[in-house]
Design a protein that fits this description.
Elements (H helix, E strand, L loop, with lengths): L1 H25 L1 H28 L5 E11 L2 E9 L1 H24 L6 H20 L3 H19 L6 H32 L4 H6 L8 E2 L2 E2 H16 L8 H4 L5 H9 L2 H11 L1 H4 L3 H23 L4 H21 L3 H28 L17 H15 L5 H14 L6 H27 L7 H5 L6 H27 L16 H8 L3 H7 L4 H19 L1 H10 L1 H8 L4 H48 L7 H22 L10
Antiparallel strand pairs: 1-2, 3-4
Length: 656
C-alpha cells in the first residue's frame, strides 16, 4: 500500500511539473491530458485506499518514509498517516479536483495562461494531499503553507486586473495572521511533548494536564493557537475577509478552494487534533461560538450580494461556520460529514455559476440575467440539485449533514450552546432565502439579458456540463448513502477521539437516529424544515411575485442595508486600524529611527564629529619645525611621566 500512497500524492505533482516547465512545448491538449491523467490516477487509487481502510477495515498505516532533518533528539520526518479520516478526505479532494480539471478545459479554453493554470491546480491538489496524509506537524505545516502559496498564485492568476492582485495579497496576508498563531501552537506542542509526530504527541498529553501558561491552562492555549490557524484557512470571523475576494480568480479555482482544498484544511486539522481539543471545554466553546457567528452573520451578507459568484462564496463562509460549530460540540464526524457533502454540492454550484458566466459572456450580475432555464437546461437542473442540497431539502446531501449539526448543538451542554442552536436554526432560513433568490433571478422570471448576449445564449460545452452532472449525483444521494456508516457505524472511529462522558452529543444523536429514510418524513415535524420552506417562499415573493417589495425593504431599512453592504465594516476597520495604522507606525519609526537615529546621529553625526575634531586639530598644524619639536618633547614628557608614576616602576621603590 505504501507505493499506492506515494502514487496518490506524486501523480498530480508530476503533472504539475510537466505542465509548468514543458506546457509551452507540449501544447494545450497534451498539457491538460497529462494533468488530468495524474489526478485521475490519484482518484482511482484514493478509491482503492477507501475500500481497503474503510470498507474492508484495513490496518491504519502510520510510517515515516524518510528523515527530513535531525536536530538533537528531535527527528522530523516525511511520513504518511492513512486511516479512515484520511481515506475519506482523499476521495473527496481527488474527485472534486478531477471534475475541476475537466471543467477547466472548457472554461479556460481561450485563456493565454491555459497550461500554467493546469500546472497550478495540479500543484494545489498535491499540496492538499500532503496536508491530509501527513503524520506530523511539520509536514502538516508544509501542506498548510503550500495550499496558501498556490491559492495566492491562483487568486491572482489574472494579474492584469488590479482587483485580482489586491485579492491575492489580501488572502496571503490574512492567512499569515492565522499561520502565525498556528506556528506558535506547533511550537508549544514541541515544547511540552518533545516531538512533532501526531501519535507521540497524543500519547504524551498527560504531561500537559494541569499545566498553565500565561495564567491559562496550557492545553487551552495550544488549542486556541491551533484554531487561529484554522480560522485563517477556513475563513472564520474575523479572519474571513479574504475568502469573498478570492472570487477574482477564475471560476474553476473558486470551486477548488471553496469545495475541497484550502478552506477544508482547518476543519480537517481540528478533527485530526480531537484528542487535544477534547481536553479543553474553553477551547471547544470558543470554536463553537466563532462558528455560530460565522454561520449566521456571513449568511446574512449573501442576501445583499448581486455577483453570482459572491452569493455562492458567502454561502461557503456560512457552511464553514456550520462545520466549525460541529467541531465545537465534539461532533467531529458530523463536521467531516458536512465537509464531504458540502464539497460536492458547493463545487457543483460554483461550476454551475461558471457555466452561466461563460454563457453570459462573463457577466456576473444576477440582476442582468433571468429566464436562462430554457437555453441552459443541464445547468438549470444540476443547479437546482445543488441549491436543494445547500438549503438542506429533505433527501438531498446537505439535509442529512446540516440536520445532524443542528441536533448535535441541541444536545450539547457547553456554555452558550442554546444561543448557538438558535443561530444555526436561523441560518437555515437565511440560506434558503439567498440561495433561491439567486436561483430565481438567474433561471426564472423575465429575461433581463441584453439582446446581443441573448442571441448567442446556449448550453455550455460538454467539458463543462459533464462535471456538473457528475457532481450532481453525489449532491443528491451521498448523504443518504453514508450518514449511517460515517456517523454511527464506525467509519471514523479510528481517527477521532471523543470524551463521551463530558461531551454526549454524538451519543444522543445515535439514540435518536432511526435511519436515513426515516429522516425524510420526520423532517416536516422539525423547525429547520419550516425555516427552509419560509426562506424559499420569501425568495419567491421578493424575486418573482412582488419584486418591488425588495426595493421598499431596502429603502425602509437603510441602516441595516448599509451595514450588510459594507460587510459589517471589517474591511474598513482593517483599512483604518491595520493598514493605515501600520503605515503611520512605519512613518513614525522612520522619522525616529532612520531619519533621527541612523541618519542624523550615526551617519551625519559621525561626519560632524570628524569635522569638529578637524577644526580643533587644524590650528596646531602651523608648518614651523620648532612647533612640531615642541609638541614632540612635550608628548615625550607626558609618556615618561605616565611610565614613571602610573606603573610599578622599581626606581620609585628605592629607599634612601
Amino acid at each position: 500500500m505504501e507505493n499506492i500512497y506515494l502514487a496518490i500524492a506524486l501523480s498530480p505533482l508530476l503533472g504539475a511539473i510537466i505542465a509548468g516547465f514543458f506546457g509551452g512545448m507540449l501544447g494545450r491538449t497534451a498539457t491538460h491530458t497529462i494533468t488530468i491523467f495524474g489526478v485521475l490516477v490519484s482518484t482511482v487509487l484514493a478509491l482503492v485506499v477507501f475500500n481497503h481502510h474503510v470498507l474492508e477495515q484495513g490496518e491504519v498505516f502510520n510510517q515515516n518514509l524518510y528523515t527530513w532533518m535531525q536536530i538533537g533528539s528531535l527527528n522530523v520526518s516525511v511520513g504518511f498517516l492513512v486511516d479512515n479520516l484520511t481515506s475519506v478526505m482523499l476521495v473527496v479532494v481527488s474527485f472534486v479536483s478531477l471534475m475541476v480539471h475537466i471543467y477547466t478545459i472548457g472554461y479556460m479554453h481561450d485563456d493565454d495562461g491555459y497550461t500554467k493554470f493546469f500546472s497550478y491546480i495540479s500543484l494545489f491538489t498535491f499540496s492538499m494531499f500532503m496536508l491530509v496524509m501527513s503524520n506530523n506537524f511539520m509536514q502538516l505545516f508544509f501542506g498548510w503553507e503550500a495550499v496558501g502559496l498556490v491559492s495566492y498564485l491562483l487568486i491572482g492568476f489574472w494579474h492584469h486586473k488590479e482587483s485580482a492582485v489586491e485579492a491575492n495579497l489580501k488572502a496571503f496576508l490574512v492567512n499569515r495572521v492565522g499561520d502565525f498563531g498556528f506556528l506558535l501552537g506547533i511550537g508549544l506542542v514541541l515544547a511540552f511533548s518533545g516531538s512533532l509526530d501526531y501519535m507521540e504527541v497524543f500519547s504524551s498529553l498527560d504531561k500537559v494536564i494541569g499545566q498553565s501558561l500565561w495564567g491559562a491552562d496550557l492545553i487551552t492555549v495550544i488549542c486556541l493557537l491551533l484554531f487561529v490557524g484554522a480560522m485563517g484557512k477556513s475563513a472564520q470571523v474575523p479572519l474571513h475577509v479574504w475568502l469573498p475576494g478570492s472570487m477574482e480568480g477564475p471560476t474553476p479555482i473558486s470551486a477548488l478552494i471553496h469545495a475541497a482544498t484550502m478552506v477544508t484544511a482547518g476543519i480537517f486539522m481540528v478533527s485530526r487534533m480531537s484528542p487535544m481539543f477534547e481536553l479543553s471545554d474553553v477551547a471547544l466553546t470558543v470554536v463553537m461560538v466563532i462558528g455560530a457567528i460565522t454561520a449566521l452573520f456571513m449568511g446574512l451578507l449573501g442576501i445583499v450580494q448581486n455577483d453570482i459568484k459572491k452569493v455562492v462564496a458567502y454561502s461557503t463562509l456560512s457552511q464553514l461556520g456550520y462545520m466549525t460549530v460541529a467541531l465545537g460540540v465534539s461532533a467531529y464526524s458530523v463536521a467531516i460529514f458536512h465537509l464531504m457533502t458540502h464539497a460536492f454540492f458547493k463545487a457543483l454550484l460554483f461550476l454551475g455559476a461558471g457555466s452561466v458566466i461563460v454563457a453570459m459572456h462573463h457577466e456576473q450580475d444576477i440582476r442582468k440575467m433571468g429566464g436562462l432555464r430554457k437555453q441552459m437546461p443541464i445547468t438549470y437542473w444540476t443547479g437546482l440539485i445543488g441549491t436543494l442540497a445547500l438549503i438542506g431539502f429533505p433527501g438531498f446531501a446537505g439535509f442529512y449533514s446540516k440536520d445532524m449539526i443542528i441536533e448535535a448543538v441541541h444536545f450539547s451542554s457547553l456554555p452558550y450552546a442554546d444561543w448557538v442552536y438558535y443561530a444555526v436554526v436561523a441560518g437555515v432560513f437565511i440560506t434558503a432565502f439567498y440561495s433561491f433568490r439567486m436561483f430565481f433571478l438567474v433561471f426564472h422570471g423575465e429575461s433581463r439579458v441584453d439582446p446581443h448576449t441573448e442571441e448567442h445564449l446556449h448550453e455550455s460545452a460538454p467539458s463543462i456540463t459533464f462535471p456538473l452532472i457528475a457532481l450532481a449525483i453525489p449532491s443528491a444521494v451521498i448523504g443518504y448513502l453514508t450518514i449511517d456508516p460515517m456517523l454511527f457505524n464506525g467509519w471514523l472511529d479510528n481517527a477521532i477521539t471523543i470524551d463521551a462522558a463530558k461531551h454526549a452529543s454524538m451519543t444522543e444523536l445515535s439514540k435518536m437516529f432511526h435511519g436515513a429514510a426515516a429522516m425524510i418524513p420526520h423532517a416536516v415535524y422539525t423547525v429547520p424544515f419550516w425555516m427552509m420552506v419560509g426562506g424559499i417562499a420569501a425568495a419567491w415573493v421578493f424575486s418573482l411575485y412582488r419584486t418591488q417589495w425588495a426595493t421598499w425593504v431596502q429603502s425602509k431599512f437603510q441602516g441595516i442595508n448599509y451595514i450588510l453592504e459594507s460587510l459589517y465594516g471589517f474591511d474598513r476597520f482593517n483599512e483604518i486600524v491595520f493598514v493605515s495604522g501600520i503605515k503611520k507606525l512605519g512613518n513614525f519609526l522612520w522619522k525616529v529611527s532612520d531619519a533621527g537615529l541612523i541618519d542624523k546621529m550615526v551617519v551625519n553625526g559621525s561626519a560632524r564629529m570628524v569635522g569638529f575634531i578637524g577644526s580643533v586639530v587644524r590650528p596646531i598644524q602651523t608648518g614651523y619645525v620648532y612647533h612640531y619639536a615642541f609638541f614632540m618633547i612635550f608628548s615625550l614628557l607626558i609618556i615618561l611621566t605616565w611610565v614613571l608614576f602610573a606603573g610599578d616602576n622599581p626606581l620609585l621603590q628605592i629607599e634612601f
